[in-house]
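User: For my dataset I need records formatted as: sequence, then structure tokens, nothing else. Please produce one.
Assistant:
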Amino acid sequence: MRNLFRLYPLLLTAALMFGADPAFAGKRVALVLANSAYQNAPSLANPVNDGAVMAKTLKEAGFDVVDSRHDLTALETRRVLRDFADATRDADIAVVYYAGHGIEVDGSNYLIPVDAKLERDTDVYDEALSLDRVLVAVEPAKQLRLVILDACRDNPFGKTMKRTLASRGIGRGLAQVEPASTNTLIAYSAKAGFTAQDGDGANSPFTIALSKHLTTPGLDVRRAFGFVRDDVLKATGNKQEPFVYGSLGGEDVPLVPVKAAPAAASVPAPAINPQADMRRDYELALQVGNKAAWEAFLAQHPDGFYANLAKLQIDKIQAEQVHAAATEKAKQAEAERDRLVAIGAQTDAQAKAAADAKAAEQAQLVAQKAKEQAQQQAAAAEQQRVNLAAATPGAAPVSAASPAGTNVASLTPLDLSRSVQTELGRVGCFSGQADGVWNASTQRSLSQFNRYAGTKLDVKVASTDALDAVKSKPSRVCPLVCEHGFKADGDVCSKIVCGDGYALNDDNECEKQRAAKPATAKRDDRDERPARQRRQSGGAAAGAEGSHGAAAGIAAAAGAGRGAGSGQIFCNTIGCRPVSRGCHLEFRGGGGPHNDANVEVCN
């Protein structure tokens, strides 16, 4: 036992020496296929060059077998795949790289040899090689099966190929695929349904990025393809996005193992960079974007540059919350004031409600100004951070969640959606919360942007094209839309204030209010008439009893003050008639049978 303890340091050293290489350091084989000289379709310039670059890259990476072929017919391709399958039987890693034309028919992918004619859609089954056939060739490999296709080009036979069935679909680029075998990855130069670019040089952007990253010693193959994706997006202006289908386990799987360091060499421990850790935590909190995340950041990093930025972010969130609460309170106070007016409440109650509504409105305006100021301060501080990161040598890329300096190539789908929403909000087309959920509301916002910016962006999904298009607009694009009771005043919504006696209607316009009729008890209609009318009624009743002269006298008295020909009526025992033009009645007193009280006097 003592001897075992004495040997422990030696055993540990040996374990470090021989265990430094990953488990995936066994036999590695590769097949490179490149087709340029097509006999029945236009030739391709780059595939043969791309194949030569990949063959050289894999050989320099120390692969045990690298079989490179180009411009093969269908029969030759089948023979090469059969021979390569024999080489993979005792291999740990098997790689197939193909550059040339490919086609998707009814959801299946096919590689097109140089002698293919493809006069009909069904000819692909005889003249082309299915992707499944390639997967069979790499299937014997024990630990990693990798197929790389730089074949997402336009179909050269699409215009001449006859369709035997109208329902048989022939897609653009290659179709999405999910490998059935474990530990299998299939890498496309462009996402399923999209086409790839050949580039302006001798090699495609995809192959250039592959040769740069794929065989980096110790680099997990999934991370390598992530770097390839970033490089291709940057080289193509975000028009081409490579994609990898399939999955691996939790262990790193590098194509090239890390060489073991000599036992005597002491590797210095990496220096701890607290600023880098702080920046990483800050960017994570920025992606979450709520108060709890910032408070957790400050609990971990209470002091320093990033702590000050985090405090500004909290101030902004609190100001937005205060403004939202003040807006809601102002709405409630205004509604209460209108309700009391409508029901004819006591004057003092209405006055108190009006004062409360005015105070709530003032508080809302104050909260709005505070919110805008906090947002401006936080945005300025964040811009300062972005500029500092860009100016610092060796600085890490700015987080994708940062409003400015967005690294489009590193955006996840959720981050991309959130960034597009943020930019749509900046140009006045989106008023919701930038939560990354691409729902109907966000689609309508992008549709509004298309309408006013004159673009034709696809509104169904968030895309880098949409992000670039919206970011290119320096100011508001969509017109400002305000809530009821507010009107657009530049870039802000101002409260609509109506004058005395006017109220805001449903069309956001001030209209004159109708005075509310006071509720009174019903009275006898006779009591509501003027006393003179009551007297006339009394005279008419007396006339009914035979006192015609008295009735006529009352009629004359009622019209005594009028001018000539003003519509007076003369009545006697014979009857009643209008007073003649130019005449008027005079009351001479008396009245009774055969004694007229009124006399018609003419000038």
